[in-house]
Amino acid sequence: MLSNTDRSLLILEALLKEVDGCALSQLSVDLDIPKSAMHRILTAMKDMGYIYQDEITQHYKLTLKIASMGLSFLSSRSITETFQPYLDELAETSSELVRLGLIEDEKIIWIGKAQGAKSGLKYDPDSGNVAYLPASACGLAYLSTLDQNDFSRIVEREGFDKAKNFGPNSPKDLTELEHMIKASRERGYGVISDTYELGMSAMAKIILNPQTGEPFGTVSIAGPSVRLSPKRIEELAPALMVTSEKIASIINLIHI
């Protein structure tokens, strides 16, 4: 037999799905809880401010207390704690390394990750590194959102002298980089192969602040090129896009 706590949680979950509320009798049938017990639990939940009863329909509805508690919880958590479930989910889907990059001072620093590869080759660098924008998938995703003035200024700062320290496909000049940026814009996300490191491929999607439209960060998938092939990258693109949207939907609810 379910405890009253279990029953209360079931009622909350049921009412979350009912915008117009639900009658006591219907809740009793749907949740297989006797009407007498249902009435006692609903009365207690009403007294605690979690639900109220519509005066016209007599349906029970959720108050804003649950939403308020959720927002308070999110605002008290760190950025990595809040987004980690989304990174874990994408890592599970891709079976590769997933990283969250935060854009600050027109640079990208990797602040969170989830490793989806369970065996075999693993690409798993330390978090906290600042990305070299011209050679990274997250950098391409970010640069592809900028206007010409901002793009030129940031690329001049990054320079191409560092290219020799990265993979063989790292852009050596502005022409090569602009070609990669054009492809990223057309595709909707950045892709690299043997660019940041030899034998490594990656894909990244920008995360935009929905209120300001400004770039907030990036989410990326990276792994050995033998697994993260062009075909596999195309297969994972929808999941990458969805993760970016999920993160964007709650970035205004957290403290950074």
From TrEMBL:
Keyword DNA-binding belongs to the record: yes
What biological-process terms (Gene Ontology) are attached?
negative regulation of DNA-templated transcription
Q: Does the keyword Transmembrane apply?
A: no
MF GO annotations: DNA binding; DNA-binding transcription factor activity
InterPro entries of this UniProt entry? GAF-like_dom_sf, HTH_MetabolicPath_Reg, Tscrpt_reg_IclR_C, Tscrpt_reg_IclR_N, WH-like_DNA-bd_sf, WH_DNA-bd_sf
Occurrences of domain IclR-ED (ranges): 65-253
* Span of domain HTH iclR-type: 2-64
Keyword set, alphabetical order = DNA-binding, Transcription, Transcription regulation
Cite the PANTHER family for this sequence.
HELIX-TURN-HELIX TRANSCRIPTIONAL REGULATOR, ICLR FAMILY (PTHR30136), HTH-TYPE TRANSCRIPTIONAL REGULATOR RV1719 (PTHR30136:SF35)
**Protein name in UniProt:** HTH iclR-type domain-containing protein
Species assigned in the record: Acinetobacter calcoaceticus ANC 3811
